[in-house]
């Protein structure tokens, strides 16, 4: 019996951040996974660069998907979420947006935030 790419159960979270290539891709990630943390970032943003290794570490040890959206490449998508500064972190749980934070959060705070929704 053949199964589609989405399998019969929730797919395992990738062990590295996923670079979002558009609105449909983001919707698919949110639909396919229980918890998704989206990092709206820019390559020229200093705090975004400081946050990157923290997110890479989290991606390897959490059940949540860490998704990254380049605001310069995806301005309309950033606008849909009211992103006015970078980094902006948007958290989805069970397909719904549950949190939004502007600015780089420390790793332990991000970990606590994700634990509230992944446990």
UniProtKB/TrEMBL annotation:
<keyword id="KW-0249">Electron transport</keyword>
<feature type="active site" description="Nucleophile">
    <location>
        <position position="45"/>
    </location>
</feature>
<dbReference type="InterPro" id="IPR005746">
    <property type="entry name" value="Thioredoxin"/>
</dbReference>
<dbReference type="Pfam" id="PF00085">
    <property type="entry name" value="Thioredoxin"/>
</dbReference>
<feature type="site" description="Contributes to redox potential value">
    <location>
        <position position="47"/>
    </location>
</feature>
<feature type="domain" description="Thioredoxin">
    <location>
        <begin position="5"/>
        <end position="119"/>
    </location>
</feature>
<keyword id="KW-0813">Transport</keyword>
<feature type="site" description="Deprotonates C-terminal active site Cys">
    <location>
        <position position="39"/>
    </location>
</feature>
<dbReference type="GO" id="GO:0005737">
    <property type="term" value="C:cytoplasm"/>
</dbReference>
<keyword id="KW-0676">Redox-active center</keyword>
<dbReference type="GO" id="GO:0015035">
    <property type="term" value="F:protein-disulfide reductase activity"/>
</dbReference>
<feature type="active site" description="Nucleophile">
    <location>
        <position position="48"/>
    </location>
</feature>
<keyword id="KW-1015">Disulfide bond</keyword>
<feature type="site" description="Contributes to redox potential value">
    <location>
        <position position="46"/>
    </location>
</feature>
<feature type="region of interest" description="Disordered">
    <location>
        <begin position="1"/>
        <end position="20"/>
    </location>
</feature>
<dbReference type="InterPro" id="IPR017937">
    <property type="entry name" value="Thioredoxin_CS"/>
</dbReference>
<dbReference type="InterPro" id="IPR036249">
    <property type="entry name" value="Thioredoxin-like_sf"/>
</dbReference>
<protein>
    <submittedName>
        <fullName>Thioredoxin</fullName>
    </submittedName>
</protein>
<feature type="disulfide bond" description="Redox-active">
    <location>
        <begin position="45"/>
        <end position="48"/>
    </location>
</feature>
<dbReference type="InterPro" id="IPR013766">
    <property type="entry name" value="Thioredoxin_domain"/>
</dbReference>
């Amino acid at each position: 019996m053949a199964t589609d790419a989405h399998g019969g159960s929730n797919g395992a979270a990738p062990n590295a951040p996923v670079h979002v290539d558009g609105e449909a891709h983001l919707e698919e990630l949110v639909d396919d996974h229980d918890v998704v943390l989206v990092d709206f970032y820019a390559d020229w943003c200093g705090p975004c660069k400081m946050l990157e290794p923290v997110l890479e570490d989290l991606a390897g040890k959490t059940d949540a998907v860490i998704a990254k959206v380049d605001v310069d490449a995806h301005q309309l998508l950033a606008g849909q979420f009211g992103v006015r500064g970078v980094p902006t972190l948007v958290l989805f749980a069970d397909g719904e947006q549950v949190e939004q934070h502007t600015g780089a959060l420390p790793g332990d705070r991000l970990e606590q935030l994700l634990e509230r929704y992944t446990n």
